[in-house]
Amino acid sequence: MRRIMMMIRIILCLSAMMFSISCSRVISGESGGKENAISFMAPEAETKAAVDTKDDLTNFNVWGWHTVGGSGASQIFDATEIHKDAGWDYTDGTRFWILGETYDFYALHPAITGGTVSYDREGNLSVTGFDCSGTGEDAIDLMTACSNGIQYDENNRPQPVSLEFSHELARLKFIVKSENTSVTVENFKVYGFGYKGNLSKQVGSGTIANWDVTSVSSETATPFEVPSFELNRTAGMEKDVFGDILVIPGNELTDAEMYIKYRYLGESTSQSSTISLNTSTTSKWEAGKSYRYILTVKGGQLTVNVSIDPWDEENTSISWQ
């Protein structure tokens, strides 16, 4: 199966103007100003929970190192936050390029504060206590990126350096619809899968992220539950129950289930059903893939259709200029 992964290209814009001060190889800003520094630019746009296009990006963190005199390394970015509201810029001091040194950059979207995230020099990422319980606009689209081995000299002028972000979570949607009859859904919930955990991954190595799940939703305690909604010609005959749910991928769906309690118009007796999310086509959720569960209520019967969709890759190239 082709791995579907939305890649968002973010480019660090570098000035092409270079000059030397004494014996220094620093591309200095003393006479050229900030245009000679590493900077970030992007068009203003509305923010959405799950990142489908460049317009959905929010603040993100950057880590960066460069070699010093051919040996050792100096860190120049340490979880530095790139602010959308500041015109995609950082605010803790300007960085300049040094010719002949080798640079490595790592990034995480969205920006996470509080000491729960770290990258080391080799690109080993650690995220502790990540919480996937938010839904819809509150869902967090965790993405990672890197760009390694960047080096410039007098004969090789700096070019834009790209960071390609990829999803570390799977996206779920749950659609409930009624074909012909008005229905009151008295309770709907999904559970039996991890929603909190710790991530470790060597970004850029081609490895799959390792997740240590620390909290699992259950039938009696799940953040993915709504109490009541109507399906009728006024309210609509179908409903996207949660909006986006972005969850930890990789675990078998042996205990994952969907529960619905519903009542037809004019009836006093409710019906309920529990349906496994572990199907013949979907036994686990994979990072970067989008899963749509459509539950149809029709004539006293329930049918479920599962589709695996790509995260929309249209218009995902961002040029930092």
Q: Key features?
A:
321 residues, mainly beta, disordered N terminus
User: Average pLDDT, to the nearest integer?
Assistant: 79
Structural class: mainly beta
Strand content: 35-45%
Share in helix:
under 10%
**SSE succession:** EEEEEEEEEEEEEEEEEEEE
Shape: elongated
The largest sheet, given as strand count, sense and whether it forms a barrel, is:
6 strands, antiparallel
Work out the radius of gyration. Answer: 24 Å
Describe the protein in words.
The protein starts with 6 loop residues before the first strand and ends in an 11-residue tail after the last strand. The strands form four sheets. A six-stranded antiparallel sheet has the order 1-8-7-4-2-3, with no helix packed on it. Strands 9, 15, 16, 19 and 20 form a five-stranded mixed sheet that branches. Strands 10, 13, 14, 17 and 18 form a five-stranded antiparallel sheet that branches. It is elongated and about 80 Å long. It has strands spanning 7-12, 60-68, 71-82, 102-109, 117-119, 124-131, 143-151, 161-167, 170-178, 183-191, 194-202, 210-216, 225-226, 229-231, 238-240, 245-247, 257-264, 271-276, 289-298, 301-310. It has no helices and 20 strands. It is mainly beta and 321 residues long. 0% of the residues lie in helices and 44% in strands.
